[in-house]
Design a protein that fits this description.
about 200 residues; alpha+beta; eleven-stranded antiparallel β-sheet; 4 helices
Length: about 200
């Protein structure tokens, strides 16, 4: 009897964790345009998650907290055991990066600053939009939509952005909670554990 209840409990948990397939829409292009319009107008949000970067034979993992308020943003990266790894604070005028050793770097371009300070590329300027599942203001080179009109893949600024899963009922539209980015030999995985969006 105990085994029966254990099997039932495991089945219930697995069912609850199962990802629901997207609900198809009649016009995916219209759904896509509405999504972009809705989420482009939302510039106050916070996400907490995990990021992994793979570069040739190296791997780097961190916990991530990103707060976006208009053009102002505060990105905190934490290593193992909550150890502070880096902080990015920026706005329309420029950006400041502080690393774990206390060194401070400043520049007007956040992507250039990250590359100079950390030694690898991370497209922060584009990621601000890609984490929402919409393109940045740069030219969109290609896209693939799922049956609900949400992006499965965006090609932009040399990056290949893939969406593996969406969180339901967050903000005005479902937001990505599992995504991957690739650029040449760089691979990035991002998992969002918690989304908060200002109504």
């Amino acid at each position: 009897m105990r085994t029966f209840w254990l099997i039932g409990l495991v089945s219930l948990v697995l069912t609850a964790c199962a990802v629901r397939p997207p609900v198809p829409v009649d016009d995916r292009e219209q759904a896509w345009r509405e999504r972009v319009q809705l989420l482009s107008a939302r510039d106050e949000w916070t996400l907490n998650g995990r990021i992994a970067l793979f570069l040739e034979n190296e791997q780097w993992n961190a916990h991530l907290r990103w707060r976006q308020r208009g053009d102002d943003y505060d990105i905190q990266l934490f290593g193992p055991f909550g150890r502070h790894a880096a902080t990015l604070e920026g706005n329309a005028a420029g950006v400041t990066l502080r690393n774990a050793e206390g060194a401070v770097y400043q520049d007007r371009d956040v992507d250039r600053l990250v590359h100079q300070a950390l030694g690898w590329q991370l497209p922060v300027s584009g990621l601000r939009y890609w984490v929402l599942g919409i393109p940045s203001h740069d030219r969109l080179e290609g896209r693939t939509l799922d049956p609900a009109g949400r992006p499965q893949r965006l090609l932009q600024s040399g990056w290949d952005v893939g969406y593996d899963r969406y969180a339901e009922a967050v903000g005005p539209a479902p937001l990505p909670d599992r995504m991957r980015l690739e650029f040449d030999h760089i691979r990035v995985r991002l998992v969002v554990d918690d989304w908060q969006m200002t109504p």
